[in-house]
Write a structure and sequence with these properties.
The structure is a homotetramer. By secondary structure, chain A is of the alpha/beta class. Chain A has helices at residues 14-22, 45-48, 61-64, 92-104, 137-144, 163-171, 197-200, 211-222, 267-276, 280-283, 305-308, 311-314, 340-356, and strands spanning 4-9, 29-36, 69-70, 83-86, 108-111, 150-153, 176-185, 225-227, 230-232, 238-245, 252-260, 294-297, 317-324, 330-336. The first copy, chain A, folds into two domains: 4-157 and 343-356, NAD(P)-binding Rossmann-like Domain (Rossmann fold); 158-337, Dihydrodipicolinate Reductase, domain 2 (2-Layer Sandwich). Chains A and B meet through strand 7, strand 10, strand 11 and helix 11 of A and strand 7, strand 10, strand 11 and helix 11 of B.
């Protein structure tokens, strides 16, 4: 079978390493190019990550000896791949420009970075929630004069603990008006080295720079619509997020209180909506799609990050403790694996969706 | 100087050990009696806690050789003390009965236990918030036919991270209508051994049995009034609490979103109210009172439990991150030391207040 | 294919749960019976472990509805299985008697417990080190008048971090005379709940009851020989072990300093011995055998428990930092997964070896 | 009283911050100058450490507004202080040169850095072990043509968990021939940010760069003698150290196995030597000296870092688990607070000793 050749930009960082593991033996995609900063360029991949390979499985043999390219030199990617996963770590403006340049050179760009999340013709996709947002691609291409190139991005990782279960309710006809939530986020969300162990032993940090702002804005675009060739955010929902860093390696947890509009589902109906929820990734049989995108745990004290983050290839959102809220209508706990579902795995699922929809 | 002789019931447990350390060299109180379960009775205190002394300072010399009494035998306390701090761990109904019996035998009982928190003639006191609730004592004595005995209790530890700053705003004339909050609570809140390390390494647990219910009910009594000789809760405020256990030894953190009534202070005014707040413990110069009951940290990422829990003898509430809430009016982070301010230290402060008011 | 029917005694505990996961879809063995204490007896397995299932995968469907037997009632196991894995938690003498009774009733007993480790006709087996010790089975049967029954046990988990690499050197002809080592052991080694989180946050405990004694005695039996129908320990090697508990969920690490006899291999030779080492489990192709029983990590700072414990199905010993010792001859770091390789997985490998050798 | 004016070089780093807290209200020394890298120079101290003050007490008022100097500009220190505590973080050769230059300009330099530890006329002092090494100062001054300047350094922090108890035995007449030890070291030993939380959650790292080498060399100089105006190391003792990083904030633990020379004390005698041990700091009544430099804990599972590191102002070495070694003669556990006793506190004690001996 002919697999699509892909590149990973920022391949030596932690998200890059996740791509390399998750794409190993992928049925549709084949890594044929890895790139990073000029420091790493021209080294064999194995050398470039010596002393900082963080995955629990070894570097795949097919990647070990690839020569690392310079992510800033787009010409180096030519002929090697047609899609690039972007996980570069640079100044935000520089990333925004670089990703545009890759796209204008004909590459499909699927990015983990926040640089283009609010660009009005760039889809920010959670594949189970707004797969139809990818339908802006023809408009994006036309507007920007691109032939085959495209840009699609994923949202901030932390909102993925709750956006799928909330969307399932919206899709079932229940307006969500207001939402107050607190997150307990894993340290891997900050990359490596990320938080100092001196801040994470016998401690939590009730602050993550920029995270609350993203958590309050991005859901509105994800739930938005395309109008006149651009995304218009849904402003009917208000979100307030408290974001905390906790001593957990992987797995973001969210404590969510929701207020519905006038029509309010009861708890049994919500459970039944969540249990029955399936979306494009499941219907299209995408290789990285979880079988059930929302898994509900019955136990009083679940989900918990170490015990539940790996459910269904670490691609499911795990939900629990659905109960009445004493102030709003309902509350619940959501959890997802932030470096898989929330980062590389989510981007790969988006790329699979792009492929299934014929955009690659 | 003549110090008041006190006893500690449940002296071998973790809260009991805290009492013993905090009352060492206390200017007003002197431990003259320690009691625990029948298992520990008749042993020297040092023997009774062998292998389970958890404090960072050694057992005070004055306590080391005290013979432990049986907490169930009230006669053993007679002649030895006139006030008992109750930190016994038994069945809740048994504690409720035992505390009443101590009081009817003439002892002042100050309790950490939840058994009498909702008893309608028992004051549940946060000394900076509702010191006037102690004025029910004459009514309590009269109603129950007690001569010198009394019962006063402290509230659940976790609400102390935010009740003092909220009360300061209420006292300044701002109604608080609704509040949604999430706590990140230390493991010591569950006593020893408490949570298993297997649940607290690379993990958090989004559930603490009974804690959300207490957090939603107790503030209403603390803010309530005395009517016809009994406490009537304030039902004008609605609270919704998500309670989480996190891998922190001591120090409960709360992420609080507040909705005011029609009159809304701006952020500067709130800061100024908090900074100027002083209450009975400060005015009366109680020995265990923090100098400033509310300490505001300016840094973007504070308060943090390991770094801030010990401020002002571990008796202050440390607050930070005051900012607009995207859904309600404001939000902030509150923190306090749960085994000092929230347990033994808070109860000692209540006893000091009882003494200053002439009830001992 | 006809799989051998097996039972798990102590099936509700943590080691029991590991058996249930590891034996799921096992090619040779099929769980047909689970037993536990009288408390759990007569419940469905799922009910019996409600609230204390600690594995990251769900209860296998084939086990969920099994009715739990009473491990003390041997008759309940009859007809249901011919081999039992024993992970009961009781008084040691009671376990010793119970295991003998199962064996005398015709069951093959493979035990994780320490009760029979030093019984002189019971083999204590690390399958890569002393597979030939199983050849005492005919003697054991004859001596005890058993027809088909047998008992084989595994050693203490912590010695498995270093016994295989040390044995590889001994087998290559190098006497090991003295060994001083320190372990950093995971909390799961103590079962659930095990160490309190109050002892494992910002702390280590330099003591594990009974562990140093086992670590100093058991290697001598593992390296011993059969003489006159009984095991005789090798007393030519002296071991001194410091055992520490550290805040790690799974994975015991050992820092080992070794003194050889007169003939001393150089570092390159040792590496080459370790890399080439294969033993009975590999040669016989046992289903649970790691491909390479000793994996050497080249990096300066490996092995590390979270990153390396899962190598090769969590069944390999991972070694690193081989270097000259400033006092003895060499030193190195060894690591293994204590609840898989060191407990249920190791016992299953022993059972596979028993089967391959025709003793089942 | 006239206090000696001192400066802190590297005042904004973690060790520098410890100096500032420990010297607050010191009876003999008064901080009159703080210096750091050019980045921090000319800022008020409070501004210079904004967002990275790690101490649990606030910046002392006397320091808050000091203008930070440039540590490289020695002239800025002139007139402001006569003694500098050096905790600068730079290239080792640059530090070595800079410290010499301060000394040749008349400053007493007491350094935490390793740059001059092996310089043969620089004393490396553990005040309870080799206070007489300071008597090289007149030789040092003469040889280098310094009038009032001097350099004295402290040893690597980790060896302080065991050097005092070992020296007490040597002083009592027992030769220590060989020693194999493993350390479990706190993350603060690496400064801030130090180890990533991703390496310290559910993990340990069995490697600290350069630490084993220092641990094997430095004890020999500390136990050495002055000969022909230079230090000659004691080469009669052999040390082998395994150094591990563990998830503990403060407090290094060591597991030590010792072999004596021909004369061997029994365990009771060792306990009695340790309990009776006092040295120059105690005899001279130095302000920072612990009352008992060696504290022995009787409990089976102590010392433990979180529970014992703060004993006696965090300046004592806490020892426990003395027992026979199965290979050498004895073994025990040692613990000390690495950022107080092992860093700033130890250096201040050395400066106090210099003052008591008349070298300031």
């Amino acid at each position: 079978m002919n697999r699509i050749k892909v590149g990973v930009l920022g391949a030596t960082g932690m998200v890059g390493q996740n791509y390399i593991c998750l794409l190993n033996n992928h049925p549709w995609f084949e890594i044929n190019y890895v790139a990073a900063s000029p420091n790493s360029a021209n080294k064999r991949y194995e050398e470039a990550v010596a002393g900082r390979w963080h995955m629990s499985t070894p570097i795949p043999d097919s990647i070990r000896n690839l020569i690392v390219g310079d992510a800033n030199q787009i010409s180096q990617a030519q002929e090697k791949c047609s899609l690039v996963f972007s996980a570069v770590e640079m100044d935000k403006a520089a990333i925004a420009a670089l990703e545009l340049e890759y796209a204008s050179n004909g590459f499909a760009v699927v990015s983990n970075n926040s640089a283009h999340r609010l660009t009005d013709d760039v889809p920010m996709v959670i594949p189970e929630v707004n797969p139809h947002h990818l339908d802006i691609i023809p408009i994006q291409r036309k507007k920007r004069g691109w032939d085959r190139g495209l840009i699609a991005v994923k949202s901030n990782c932390s909102i993925q603990s709750y956006m799928t279960p909330i969307y399932a309710l919206i899709q079932a006809g229940y307006e969500v008006r207001r939402m107050i939530l607190s997150t307990l986020q894993a340290v891997s969300g900050a990359g490596y080295p990320g938080p100092s162990s001196l801040d994470m032993i016998d401690n939590i940090v009730p602050f993550i720079s920029g995270e609350e702002e993203k958590s309050e804005l991005e859901p509105l675009k994800v739930l938005g619509r395309i109008e006149d060739g651009a995304f218009v955010s849904d402003t009917s929902m208000k979100v307030s997020a408290h974001c905390n860093r906790v001593p957990v390696t992987h797995g973001h947890t969210a404590c969510v209180s929701l207020e519905f509009g006038d029509s309010k589902p009861d708890l049994d109906e919500i459970l039944s909506i969540w249990r029955g929820f399936h979306a494009a990734p499941q219907e299209l049989g995408l290789p990285s799609a979880p079988m059930d995108p929302i898994i509900y745990r019955e136990e009083a004290d679940r989900p918990q990050p170490r015990k539940d983050r790996d459910m269904d290839k670490a691609m499911a959102v795990v939900v629990g403790r659905l109960r009445k809220c004493n102030v709003f209508d309902i509350r619940f706990i959501g959890l997802h694996h932030n470096t898989v579902r929330g980062a590389a795995g989510g981007a790969i699922l988006t790329a699979e969706l792009l492929n299934a929809k014929g955009y690659l």
